[in-house]
Request: fold
Amino acid sequence: MEKMQFKAESKRLLEMMINSIYSQKEIFLRELISNASDAIDKIYYKALTDDSLSFDQNHYYIKVKADKENRTLTISDTGIGMTKEELENNLGIIAKSGSLAFKSENELKDGHDIIGQFGVGFYSAFMVADAITVTTKTIGSEDAYRWHSGGADGYTIELGEKEEVGTEIVLSIKENTEEDSYDEYLEEYRLKAIIKKYSDFIRYPIKMDVTERKSKEDSETEFEEVLEEQTINSMVPIWRKNKNELTSEDYENFYAEKRYGFDKPLKHIHISVDGAVRYNAILYIPEQIPYDYYSKEFEKGLELYSNGVLIMEKCSDLLPDYFSFVKGMVDSEDLSLNISREILQHDRQLKLIAKNIKNKIKSQLQSLLKDEREKYETFYNSFGRQLKYGVYSDFGANKEDLQNLLMFYSSKEKKLITLDEYVSSMPEDQKYIYYAAGESYDRIEKLPQTEVVADKGYDILYFTDEVDEFAIRMLMNYQEKEFKSISSGDLGIEAGENEKGAESEEKDNKDLFEEMKTILAGKVKDVRISKRLKSHPVCIATEGEVTTEMEKILKAMPNSQNIQAEKILEINRNHEVFTSLKDSFEKDKEKLALYTNLLFNQALLIEGLPIEDPVEFTNDICKIMV
Reply:
C-alpha cells in the first residue's frame, strides 16, 4: 500500500493549521460535525434532481462516540459519502473544499445552505489526534474506502469495509501533556457541552450514547447505570420559527437556556431579514444590570452563528457601546468569515447588519418609553447611565440617536421625565433648561442655589450620575433650549424687586468684598452679593466650563491634574450674616477673617466638597462659641 504525500506544501501548511489557525482545540468537533451536516445536505440536493433518490430527513443523523479504553473518538454520519477520487481530492489537498465546489455547481435553496467553504476544518482534528482514519461509502457504490493519516508525513487510501452509505471518522486521541489534557475529549459531559455550544442548531440529530442512572426493575432503592442513545442538539433554532408560533414564554426560555442572564428580559426583538443581507436575530433588553457591567471584565457582544453553527460567542462589532447591555444572537448565511470560521472579516454585510440592529434597538426603546412607561423606567434605572455615556463618548457623535431616550428626575414632578416633557411644560418666559448636580435628590433639593429658580416656578432637573453634566455639555441644547446649571454665574432670570438693589449694595461694599477675596486668595475667583439666595446666608457659584460637581468627579480620577472650578462666593445681603460681616470689617479685621473662612467652608460643605483644614474649621467654630 503506497503512502501518498499531501499536496500544497503539505507539512508546512498542515503544521500551520494545527498550531495557528484555530484559537481553541475544542473547535475540531464543530468542524467535523459541520462537515457531516454538509454530507447529509448533499443527499438532499442530489434527491432534488435524481428521481431514483428520495430524502426523508428522519433517516439522517450524526453520531458521536467516545471509547476511553482505546482512546478513540468516532464521528459518523449517514450522508452522501465519498468516492476514492473524492477522498484524494478533498482530503489529499489541503484547503480544497468539496462543499464549496458543490455550492458552485448546484443552486441552493429551501434553507439547506452548505456550511463548509474552506476545506481546512477536517484537519483541525489533528490538534487533538495523533492519527485519523476515515472510512466512507458513497451512494451507488459497492466499495468502501479507508483513508488514514498520522499527520504531515502523508496518507494512505485502500479498500475498506462499510455496509451503509456514509462516513465514519475515527480520531486516535493524543496522550496528555504537561500543558494540555486531551482526556477531556473522551468525557461524555465535555463532548455534550461542546456540541450544545457550537452545533446545537445543526438541522440533523447529533446522537450520543449517554450514561443514565435508573432504578433497577422491581426495586425502588437500588440503581444502575445504563447507556441510552440521546439526541444532544435542539436542531430547529427558535429564530427560524414563525413569530406567530412563538409565545413570550418561548423567548424567556431561550433567554434562560442561553444563560444570557438570571433575570427575565424586559423585552425581546425578533428580526428576520431576507434582502441584500439575509439574517435572523433575537435580541433581549434585560431588566437587571449584570454584576460586572461597569468592570473591565465585562464583554459586550452578540452570539454569532453562520448557518446555525456558533462562530463567535461575543461579536462586539454588532453592537455600539451605548447598547452594550443588549443580549442575544445573530445568524446569517452571508457573512465573510476567515479561514478558521472564528473571526469575522470586516465587510459590508456585517456593517449593514450592525446598523439595522442599532436602529431596531433604538426603535424598541422608544416604543417602550411611549407605550410601557413603567417598564422603560425599570430599564432606565439599570442602564440609563450607559445611554448618557453614549451621548458623551465619541465627541457627541451619537447624541441625536440618544437624546430622546434620556430621563432625569424633575423637581416639580418628583419623578423621571424626558427632555421633551421638560421643554413642553416650560413657561413662556423661561429661557433655559435648568439643572442641579449632586449626590442624591435630597441633597440637591436642599441646595441654596435652587431657591430663586424654584420661586420663579421653573422646573429643575436633578443630576446624580457622575456622567450627567459631561453628557449635557456635549448635548449643549435640546430643541434650541440651552442647559443652565443653577450654580452658573448668570441664570438668565430677571431680577425681582428684592434683587434690584443688589448692584448698588455691592458697590457700596466693594472694599469689604475685596478684603474677603484677599482672605480667600487662591480659593475663590470673586466674592459678591448674591441674586439667587433667599433664606440661606451663603453659596458657591461657578464660572467657566467646570462646575463644583464636575470638579469632584475629575479629582477622583487618576492623573486628574487638580482641575478646579472657578468658584464665586456669594453672600445673601438680606441675611443677618451680612450685617455681621459689615460690622467686623469696620471694627475687627481678625473677626472678619474668621467669619470669611467659616462661610467659605460652610459653602464647601453644602456643595459636598472637602474643606482644606478640618481642624482649623472646628477651632474657628469654637472661637465663635466662646
